[in-house]
Design brief:
Blueprint (H helix, E strand, L loop, with lengths): L3 H26 L9 E14 L7 E14 L8 E13 L5 E11 L6 E7 L4 E2 L12 E10 L5 E7 L15
Antiparallel strand pairs: 1-2, 2-5, 2-6, 3-4, 3-7, 7-8
Length: 178
């Protein structure tokens, strides 16, 4: 006859195995639903200004402000295993030295399917800065709206919903914000 500890051990091992199999089935079933959301992205304006750095007030740098319009519908990405979406707009450009830069200029976390339709008009959330401190001689930037699906169980998946049709050049820096 088995002791009470052996019986509790076998019951808990059986239930934990059942839970792991169920979680594995949920993670694998998420691969059956492949949604490809599409959106529209339009860069309205890109302005670059001279500024002082925060940490070193004697150093000058250039800061870019991007105004954009975007609309996208991410509702097809929501299923029983979607916890939240991380949606972001990024600028990709190359410096004169050949270093590729990717900068996030806007982001949003979408937690509900009801909030998954996004319409943003003339908004900039983060400033555009380059490590060199200047946008002169920088190649034109390509802008793209990307997303990250965060599931309850399973692997993260990434995708792109919109991209600008052509690269946009950085203008010459101005002295004052107007």
């Amino acid at each position: 006859m088995h002791s009470i500890y052996a019986r509790v051990n076998s019951i808990s091992a059986f239930w934990s195995t059942c839970v792991m199999v169920l979680l594995g089935a949920v993670a694998l079933s998420s691969f059956l639903f492949n949604a490809d959301p599409k959106g529209n992205l339009d860069i309205v304006s890109l302005k670059v200004f001279h500024s002082k750095t925060r940490r070193y007030p004697f150093r000058n740098e250039e800061i870019g402000f991007v105004k954009f319009n975007l609309s996208a519908d991410f509702t097809p990405l929501f299923n029983w295993n979607t916890k939240q979406l991380f949606v972001y707009l990024e600028a990709e450009y190359a410096s004169p030295q050949g270093v590729n830069n990717t900068v996030v200029i806007w982001d949003r976390i979408v937690r509900r399917k009801e909030d998954a339709t996004i319409d943003v008009v003339q908004k900039d959330k983060y400033k555009l800065r380059d490590l060199s401190g200047s946008f002169s001689n920088v190649l034109a930037a390509q802008y793209s709206l990307k997303y990250n699906v965060m599931p309850y169980v399973g692997v993260l998946s990434y995708g792109e919903a919109a991209r600008t049709a052509e690269a946009i050049d950085f203008p010459e820096a101005r002295d004052s914000v107007s």
